[in-house]
Design goal:
Layout: H1 3-50, H2 52-58, H3 72-104, H4 111-142, H5 159-191
Helix pairs in contact: 1-3, 3-4, 4-5
Length: about 190
């Protein structure tokens, strides 16, 4: 074998090895997404049933803002409110899993992969907006039994929400790029 032919084959072998590692990583991440999509919704009732201190942090309240123990009905309402962004996040993880499985199968520039990224972007954005909207509702629920004048509605939102919305926008754009790549691939295949 000549030295020239060795240089021609080396990049393809390295590319195949990297591609195999990429596919394995995508499959492993898909498994993690599946596990998290099932586990995280189960944590909401546990949190609302037992951990009062984390609820105060969740609603961005101070230590003395919740003056009375939470009644069972308020815990239920709070759990339902906080379940909305968590369930949207779980759905986002499920959609991320679907996209990662596409990549693990070697489907990059396909309509399905582009659709997965766009759905993921919409769900991540919806999760961020739902979390932003849940904060005032949670603070109202947690302080509902306080004396009049001691109740609170806290409106939060900061850099974390902005970054998540920015990432959702980038994912949406990447889905559009994949969709365009898929159209170009079909167009090129028609010429061949």
């Amino acid at each position: 074998m000549s030295i020239e032919s060795r240089f021609r084959t080396a990049p393809s072998l390295a590319g195949a090895s990297a591609n195999g590692r990429f596919r394995k990583l995508c499959a492993a991440l898909a498994t993690i997404c599946l596990a998290l999509a099932w586990i995280t919704p189960m944590l909401v009732p546990i949190q609302w049933g037992f951990d009062a201190d984390s609820l105060i942090i969740l609603a961005h309240l101070g230590p003395g803002d919740v003056q009375t123990p939470l009644r069972g009905s308020l815990r239920t309402v709070g759990a339902l409110i906080s379940a909305v962004p968590v369930l949207l996040g779980a759905w986002s993880l499920w959609q991320a899993r679907d996209g990662l499985l596409c990549f693990a199968r070697g489907e990059a520039f396909t309509a399905h992969a582009a659709q997965c990224l766009r759905r993921l972007a919409m769900l991540v954005g919806a999760t961020a907006l739902a979390a932003f909207a849940a904060e005032p509702a949670l603070s109202a629920v947690l302080t509902w039994d306080n004396a009049i004048g001691a109740r609170a509605i806290v409106v939060g939102g900061g850099l974390a929400h902005a970054i998540v919305l920015l990432c959702a926008t980038v994912l949406w754009l990447m889905g559009g790029v994949l969709g365009q790549g898929q159209l170009l691939a079909e167009e090129n295949a028609a010429f061949l």
